[in-house]
Structures are given as C-alpha cells and as structure tokens.
Amino acid sequence: MLIYIDMDDVLCDYTAAFHQAINLTPSIAFPQSQYGFYANLTPIIGAVESVNALIKSEKFDPYILTAPSNRNPLSYTEKRVWIEKYFGIAFTEKLIICANKSLLKGDILIDDQLSGRGQDKFDGQLIHFGSTAYPNWKSIMNTLTQHNFS
To answer: Which SUPFAM superfamilies does the record associate with it (predicted)?
Structure first.
C-alpha cells in the first residue's frame, strides 16, 4: 500500500517553530527563511516511531511528501537533512518534493490540510492529520493496522 506522508505539521512541528521564531525575533517576518529552520524542526509526537513501523512493514510503502519553501532555497537540503537524521540516509530516496499533490497516484495521503496543494484531488484516501478522526499518530496507526481502507 503506497502511502504519502506530508512533512510540515504532520512529521515535524513547523507551526510551533514558526511562532517561537516570530516571538524571539519579531523583526524577521519570514523565520522559515533563516538557515537551519527546517533542519531543526521538532518531530510530532509519535511520528518517527510510526513512520519507522511503516518502513519495516511489508504491507506499506511510505514516502515523505513536502513542498519547498519559496522563502528559503535551503529548504530542499534542510528537509532532506531532517529525513536523514530521523530515518537514515537510505530513506532519503523516498523524499518527494512536490507542490501539487493531485499529480500523485497512491493509496493514502496523510496531510494536515484538506486543500491548497491538490490534496482534495488526490487519487486515493486522504487522512486528515490533526482532525477529530485523526488527532495524532496513534489514531492513524490504529486505522492503518486495522485495514480500514478500501
């Protein structure tokens, strides 16, 4: 089962880092433009363990899906560094930089947004991370392991 997993606010806490940076340095309007912003994002609780379980599973084929920041050309490199840090260098080949998720074919997309980058046109099942039905990684893993997808 091919699974795409969004990175920002699904695997790593982009929003908390953004707000913390704004509070610390309000003169910088786009903190995500600063060196090290993406490479140092904190993992979402349960994300690393869950993705590692998916990687080890014979049933799932996970890929990390993320859009580049137009405010930070280093975001490409830093996101790859983040993936290597938490999942190892071998898994970096499964990092996909994509701004339009409707172009992808797969079984499942795990994303914190329902639209904006083609999520609403994804050709598969959309799991809305952070929603009432899927508030955290535990709820997602429970659903995936119970085979609740047609």
So the answer is: HAD-like (SSF56784)
Instruction: Provide CATH code, domain 2-145.
Output: 3.40.50.1000
Q: Which residue has the tokens 């050309």?
A: 73
Q: How far apart are the first and last CA of the chain?
A: 11
Phi-psi region of 128 (alpha: psi -120 to 50; beta: other; left: phi over 0): beta
Q: What residues does each domain of the chain span?
A: 2-145
For residue range 53-98, list pLDDT tens digits in order: 999 999 999 999 988 888 788 888 999 999 999 999 988 888 888 7
